[in-house]
Structures are given as structure tokens and as C-alpha cells.
Amino acid sequence: MASALYVKGSIALDLGSQEYVTVSTAIPSDIGDSAQLAIDQVNIALANLSGTLATLKSEIKAAFQDAITTVETTINDKVDDIVAQVKSLIEQGISEVSSIMDDVSGDLDSATSGLSLDSLIAPIIDGITGSIPDPLKGIVQELVSSISSKLGDAFDSLISDMLGKIMDRNSSAAASAVQKIE
User: Fold this and answer.
1) How far, in Å, CA of 88 to CA of 86, rounded?
2) Mean pLDDT across 153-181
3) For the chain, what percent of residues have pLDDT higher than 90?
4) Comparing 108 with 89, which gets the higher pLDDT?
5) How far is CA 179 from the centre of its chain?
6) CA-based diameter of the chain, in Å?
7) Which residues contact 87 (CB under 8 A, 6 or more apart)?
8) CB–CB of 116/152 below 8 Å?
């Protein structure tokens, strides 16, 4: 558009007198009332639907909560069962270990009961005292016997303490394992 015309102002047009006319449209005159009745029914239905949806929402929420509670309870029960089974198996294992420890303790006691310092050093002492002349031999044997007796008591005490500590350590470890499970 190369050029434009812009006009500002007002215009009045008087074509003559005014008259009212009735136009026949074939639309019934009570259609407004019918439409209002339909609108009212739709509004009532929508209100009912809103209430139904709110109820449905609450029921679905409750159903989900019940399902979650059921799943939680089932899982917790299964975990408790598994923990109880594991604990039982560990206790059985500890009982078996304790039985084995008792057997080992008995075996160690049997193995060490024959051990004494006297039995270990007697051949050495006999070899030493065998070459000493008779007048001194009795004195040396008394001295060696006294020393040997004290060493033997210390040796027996050492073996007993060592076995006790081994058994205590194993018992303590087993008890600690049970406490950690509980």
C-alpha cells in the first residue's frame, strides 16, 4: 500500500423514524427456562461428581496406605525370620565350636600332661651329675633338684596360663559374635 488515508471524527446518519418489529424465529419462548433447568441439572451432577471423586480419592489413598502397611509388615516379618534363622545357625555354630574347643582343650591337656621340665631336663642333669665325683655328687644333685623343681613349677604354670588364655580368647570371640547378632 503506497498511500493511506486517515480520518478522525464522528458521523451521524438519520434515516427516519424508529419502529419496533417482531421477528419470528421459530425458537420457543420458554427455551431459556429449559436451558436454565439443564444448566442446574449439570451443576448438580458436577457437584455430585466432585463429592464422588473426593470419596474415591480418600478410598484410593486408604487402599494404598493399607497396601504399604501390608508390604512393610510382610518385609519386617521376613527380615525377623531371617535374622532368627541366622542367629540360630550362628548359635549352633558357636555351640559346635565350643564343643570342639572343649575337645581341643582336653587334647591339649592330655598332650601337655606328660610334659614337665623334669622329664625334659632330667637327661641333661644326669649327664652333668654323672661325671661329678661321689662326695660332691649329692650336693650338686640337691642344688639342681631344688632349681629343677622351681623351674618345673614355673613351666607347668606357664603351660596352664597359656592354655587358659587360648581358651578364654576363643570363648570371648564366640560370645562377642553372639552379642553382635543380637
Assistant:
1) 5
2) 73
3) 18
4) 89
5) 16
6) 175
7) 181, 182
8) yes
- CA 55 to chain centroid, in Å, comes to 38
Please give, one letter per residue, the 3-state secondary structure of the chain: CCCCCCCCCCCCCCCCCCCCCCCCCCCCCCHHHHHHHHHHHHHHHHHHHHHHHHHHHHHHHHHHHHHHHHHHHHHHHHHHHHHHHHHHHHHHHHHHHHHHHHHHHHHHHHHHHCCCHHHHHHHHHHHHHCCCCHHHHHHHHHHHHHHHHHHHHHHHHHHHHHHHHHHHHHHHHHHHHHHHHC
Question: Quick check: 37 pLDDT over 70?
Answer: yes
54-82: per-residue pLDDT in tens? 999 999 999 999 999 999 999 999 999 99
How many residues are given for the chain?
Answer: 182
pTM of the model: 0.40
| pLDDT(1) > 60 | no
Helix axes 31-113, 134-181, angle to 10 degrees: 170
Residue 6, pLDDT above cutoff 90: no
Cα torsion 25, 30, 32, 38: sign: negative
pLDDT attached to residue 87:
85
Cα–Cα distance measured from residue 87 to residue 76, given in angstroms and rounded to the nearest whole number = 16
Contacts of 101 (CB under 8 A, 6+ apart): 167, 170, 171
